[in-house]
Amino acid sequence: MRVLLCATLLTHSIAAQVGIWAAAPATVMPPHQEQQLVFDPVRQVISMVGGQTIGNNSSPLALWDYVGGTWVDRTPSGAPVVEGVRATFHGGLGKVVALVERSQSFLELYAWTGSTWSLLPGAPPLLRTRFGFTYDAMRDRLVVFGGIRAGQVVSETWEWDGAVWQQLSSGGPPGRIDPAMQFDSVRHVCVLFGGNREPSTLNYGDTWEWNGFYWLEHFGIPGPSPRTRAMSTFDQDRGRMVLYGGVAAANPTDTWEWDGSVWAQMQTTMNPGHVIGAMAYDPTTASVLLLWQNGTWQYAPVPPAPSTFTAFGDGCGGTLGVPVLAAAGTSLPMLGTTFHAELTNIPGSVFNVPIGFAAFDATTWNGVPLPIPLDPLGFTGCEVWIAPAVSQPLPNNAGVAPWDIAIPLHFNLVGLDLYLQGAVLAPGANPGGFLFSNAGHVVVGTP
C-alpha cells in the first residue's frame, strides 16, 4: 500500500492554514549534537552534516542521509576532525558544502563528493564560531555573517565566489552569534533573524535582509520574540522562511513563517518541544524535517483533519456466511501510522485465501457505474463496490484476515479518499468460488 499512497503525491493538493508537527520514523539516529541539515536536490535526500558525537568537543566530519525513514551513515573513513560546522547546498558546485572549524585555529571549506569530503580553494575568513551561513543561489555566493572571533562578537559580512573569500560589509545588523539565516529563493535575498550578543544575555528579535550590496532591516514588524539558536529553513514551494523554537528565558516552542513582509505564527496542536537541532525543507514531501539529539520530526502547513473509516455496501456469502470489512478496534487512518483493517466472518481453512482490494474511486470502473453485479460471473448475489487499483493477499488467522495499511508521513496525503473491499477464495460457496465483503471508505487524517 505504500507505493499506492505515494503515487498520489503529485496530484493531491492541500490547503495551508495552520501547521502540523508529527514525529517522523527514524529507525537509526545519528549520535550527534550541533548538527546541520541540508537538502541535496542532486541526490534528492536530506543529509545531516557534521555535529559532535555525544560527549566530545570534536568529531570526524559526519554525513548521514535520511532514506525511507532511516538515517544511514555515509561518513567516510579519514574524514577531517572538526569542532564546529555550518553547512548548505551550493548550487553552482551541485554539492553539499561545509564550512568547518579545525582545532580552534582556522576554518576550512569542504564539498561532499558523494563518497568523501574534498577541500575547496580559498582561505576562509579568520577563525570565528557560531556565525550565520547560507548560499545565495541568485549570485552563486556563500555568505557568512557575524560570529565570535578572538572573544569579540563581529558584524562582518563575507562571501565566497568559488575561488576567494572577500569581506563586503562591516555594517548592517549589530554583531551577534547563532542567528537564523536562510536564502529566500523567491525574493533573492538572505534573511537573518535573531541571535545573541555574547557575552551578555541579550537576544535579538530583529529581521534583516542582505541583497549582496547592503543590509536592510524590517523595522516595527511584529514577529517571534527575541531568541538565539532558532532552527530555520526556507520552504521554496510556498516562498516562506520557517522558524521554530530557539533559546531564550522562556525557551519558546513556537512555529513562525516569514513571507518577506510579515511574520505569521502558525497554530499547531503539538510540537517537538524545547529542542536544539537543525531543520531542512524537503520538496519531495512538501514538509520540513527537524532533527535533534533524540528525535526526528516533520512539519507542514496543513490544517488538522479527521481520520475516518466508514463501511458501505453489502457483502455476499452463499452458504458460508458474509465476510465483514471493518477497522480493527479503534484504529484510524492517520499520517505516519499503520491503519489496521480486518476481514472477519470468513471461512478459516488455509485454502480460503483472503484478498484485499484498494481503490481511489467508488463511482465508476472502466466507465461502468458502481456497484457492478457479479452474478453473470458466477458470484451469486455479489457486487463490486470499488474500482480496484491494487490487490494483495492477506493472512487467514482462523477466520480473521488482518489488513495492515502503512500510511507514509507525507502531508499531501491529508484528506485522501481511499476505498477498500475484501474477497476470500471459497470453493463451493457459489459457482464462481469467491465471497466478497462490504466496502469501506477511508479518509486519511492528521495525528
Question: What secondary-structure arrangement, pairings included, does this model have?
Answer:
Elements: H1 2-6, E1 20-23, E2 32-33, E3 36-40, E4 45-49, E5 52-53, E6 59-60, E7 63-67, E8 70-73, E9 81-82, E10 84-90, E11 95-102, E12 106-112, E13 117-119, E14 132-136, E15 141-145, E16 148-149, E17 152-153, E18 157-160, E19 165-169, E20 180-184, E21 189-196, E22 203-210, E23 215-217, E24 231-235, E25 240-244, E26 255-258, E27 263-266, E28 277-282, E29 287-292, E30 295-300, E31 308-312, E32 324-327, E33 338-344, E34 354-359, E35 364-365, E36 368-369, E37 372-373, E38 383-384, E39 390-393, E40 401-406, E41 417-425, E42 434-443
Antiparallel strand pairs: 1-30, 2-5, 3-4, 4-7, 6-9, 7-8, 10-11, 11-12, 12-13, 14-15, 15-18, 16-17, 18-19, 20-21, 21-22, 22-23, 24-25, 25-26, 26-27, 28-29, 29-30, 31-42, 32-33, 33-40, 34-39, 34-41, 35-36, 37-38, 41-42
